[in-house]
Amino acid sequence: MNSKEQKRIEAILNLLAQSYPFTGTALHYETPFQLLVATILSAQSTDRQVNRVTKKLFSKYPTPQKLAAADLAELEDLIKGCGLFRNKSRNLKKMSQQLLAQYGGQVPPVLEELVKLPGVGRKTANVVLNNAFGIPALAVDTYVSRVAQRLKLTGASHASTIEKELCQKIPQSLWGKAHHWLIAHGRNLCRARSPRCKECLLLKHCPTGKEIIKKGREKIDP
Asked: Of 71, 103, 133, which marks where a domain is finished?
């Protein structure tokens, strides 16, 4: 990475930091296990909806011991407000059972171990590592992918490759914060079909935004 590109990335990060000072997860939790559950539930669901679901879920099943013994039909009913609730119910129960069998009921603070759990991919594992354990990690979801691609911070399309490239370009101390900054920017301005490029604080540093404005396009392909 040349010095010009390094300065561009530094400018992008500084602007994001100024615009989105809150860098914590919006998911409600009290323990690493509860954050793991909430993050699994967040796939194809909003954080607000997940928080509504987990309020009831955690009051009844706050620990892996209780969730591992849950009745599957009852568990499905509790989380049916989230997308893919039947599949998630099975994964949550199996994940809790595996935590008890292999880790004494504790969430392992190691990515390679986390991704072995049912329903847990790299994104979920990285969210838990960063937010529950303070371990530097950069979770890549659809928001992060979209914003990073438009800013030309990556030319990749696969999440694991995007994660690798971002981690090479962003200081390790900012990985967790950058995850939240990119998500917030994707939700607020850099939207999938109708990005608000003319209002964007990053326009000066965004090749995609400049091209959209140059062509006078208000909508783009997702």
From this structure: 133
In this predicted model, what pLDDT tens digit does every residue of 37-73 receive, in sequence order?
999 999 989 999 999 999 999 999 999 999 999 999 9
Whether residue 221 lies in the annotated active site: no
Q: Which of 66, 93, 94, 141 is catalytic?
A: 141
CATH number at residue 69: 1.10.340.30
Q: Is residue 221 part of a domain?
A: no
- Is 141 designated active site? yes
pLDDT band, residue 23 (cuts 50/70/90) = confident
> What residue numbers bound the domain in which 44 lies?
32-133
Residue 219 lies in a domain: no
Does 10 lie in the same domain as 58?
A: no
Q: Is the pLDDT of residue 221 over 70?
A: no
**Region class of 120: left (phi > 0), else alpha (psi between -120 and 50), else beta:** beta
User: Catalytic one among 123, 215, 219, 221?
Assistant: 123
Co-location of 91 and 176 in the same domain: no
The separation between CA 12 and the C-alpha centre of its own chain, rounded to angstroms, equals 19
Taking only the tens place, the pLDDT of each residue in 124-137 is 999 999 999 999 99
